[in-house]
């Protein structure tokens, strides 16, 4: 009797978790760097296609909102939800430019672009990385197994050790949550403890503390 879909899927996920632990230490460093950058008024841009677009939005939502503990909102923009901008850029400049043009609009020197892709071969994400580098941004990629063009084009990459796109997406979600955990753990060293009044929150954001 062949294994059920549940057994096959969970077996594939479990097999990928062990080698994932070996590369996940990168997330602690990324989380710490993002805490310092975002806590001082910097910005994160995130992009992906399909299921990875949803995970890009998930990451931005956890930072603008919160993962668990109360804290100041952090500037994170997913480049996927604005259907008017995406379709206008795609119509006028081609689908390859849908993220790159937004990066040029929103990115500033020192900001961070995170791209998510199971294949690591999406031309529009590779174009976004090139645009980010032109803007003086740091570029980090979360991909499937390497080598792949997106990981190679980026400053740093987290390559998830599975040939299965579904498993890679699940590892990316785990990576998103772990990185947010590290951001929240580091943030108190960057900014004053989160205050419960809008006036203080607004002042912290205005002066970039």
Automatic annotation (TrEMBL):
Gene Ontology terms: biological process: carbohydrate derivative metabolic process
CDD domains, sorted: SIS_GmhA
GO molecular function, one term: isomerase activity
Keyword tags: Isomerase
Gene3D superfamilies linked: Glucose-6-phosphate isomerase like protein, domain 1 (3.40.50.10490)
One Pfam family of this chain: SIS_2
Keyword Isomerase attributed: yes
Family annotation (InterPro entries): GmhA/DiaA (IPR035461), SIS_dom (IPR001347), SIS_dom_sf (IPR046348), SIS_GmhA/DiaA_subfam (IPR050099)
Domain of life of the native organism: Bacteria
Ranges for domain SIS: 34-193
UniProt protein name: D-sedoheptulose 7-phosphate isomerase
High-level lineage: Bacteria, Bacillati, Actinomycetota, Actinomycetes, Micromonosporales
